[in-house]
C-alpha cells in the first residue's frame, strides 16, 4: 500500500480557520465524491491545531514553522493510482480536484511526496483516531536528514535505531500509537509535483504519534516521563535536521476508509 502525503500551507490572505473550513467542508467532500473513480482506499485530513502545545513541541527541538495541515490518500499499489489516472473519469476527477486546490492551497509553500508506512506501536484493534470531539490528539513530525546524511542513511537509522528507542520510552511518555511514514520514489510523484508548479522539496518522511491530552500533566510531573522525552529528543538529533523539519499537534478528519 502507498500513501500520498501533501503538507499544506494556506495563502497569506487566509486565516488558518478559513483555510481549514474550506478544506474540510468543501474540498474533502469533493475528493470523497470521486474516490471510486480514483480508486482511493483511504483519505484523511489532519488539521493543525492552534494550541500552545505547538510552541512547546517546536521550542524543544528548534523546528521550523508548522504546516496548516496534512492531506493523506492511500492506494493499494502504485499501479492502482496509475490505472485510475488513465481513465477518462479519473482524468476528469483529477482535474476538478486540482482546480479546487488552487483556490485555497499555496502550493509554492507546500510539499508533496509518496510514502510507505511502518507501524511501530499499533494497538489492536487499530481504532485510535484523533477526532474533533476526543481528548486524543496526533503529533505530526515532517523530517529532513542532517546535512551529513542521505535520506537513505537517515531512514535506516530511523527505522533500525530510533524505532526501538521510541518503543522503549513509550510507556513513560504515555504514547498510544506510533507510525513511521518513509518517503519512497515512484514514477507518479514527478507528475503530481509538476502539475502544481514550484513546491518545497519533499521530506524524507514523517512520524505520527497519538497521545491523550489528559496524560500530559502526568508525563511532565514524573521523572520517567521527563527522562523519556529527553532520551527521545536526544536520539532524534542523531538523524533529523530540526531546523529544516516541523512538528505540530493536530486533529484528524476521516473522509474515506475502505
Description:
The chain is α+β, with helices and mostly antiparallel strands and 258 residues long. It has a single domain (2-257), classed as Alpha-Beta Plaits. The protein is built from 8 helices and 8 strands; from the N terminus they run βαβαβααββαβαβααβ. The longest helix is centred in the middle third of the chain and has 23 residues, at 151-173. The radius of gyration is 18 Å and the shape is globular.
Total E-strand runs: 8
Give the number of helices: 8
H/E element order: EHEHEHHEEHEHEHHE
Percentage of residues in helical conformation: 25-40%
Strand order of the largest sheet: 1-3-2-8-5-7-6-4
For the sheet with most strands, the description reads: 8 strands, antiparallel, barrel
Q: Tell me, what's the shape?
A: globular
Distance between the termini: 13 Å
Strand content: 25-35%
Question: Please, what is the average pLDDT?
Answer: 96
**Low-confidence residue ranges:** none
CATH architectural group: 2-Layer Sandwich
* Oligomer state of the chains in this structure: single chain
Number of separate domains = 1
**CATH C-level class:** Alpha Beta
Observed structural traits:
258 residues, 8-stranded antiparallel barrel, 8 strands, alpha+beta, single chain
Could you outline the blueprint of secondary structure elements for this entry?
Layout: E1 2-8, H1 16-33, E2 42-48, H2 52-61, E3 69-75, H3 78-84, H4 88-101, E4 111-121, E5 136-143, H5 151-173, E6 177-184, H6 188-195, E7 205-212, H7 216-221, H8 223-236, E8 246-257
Antiparallel strand pairs: 1-3, 1-4, 2-3, 2-8, 4-6, 5-7, 5-8, 6-7
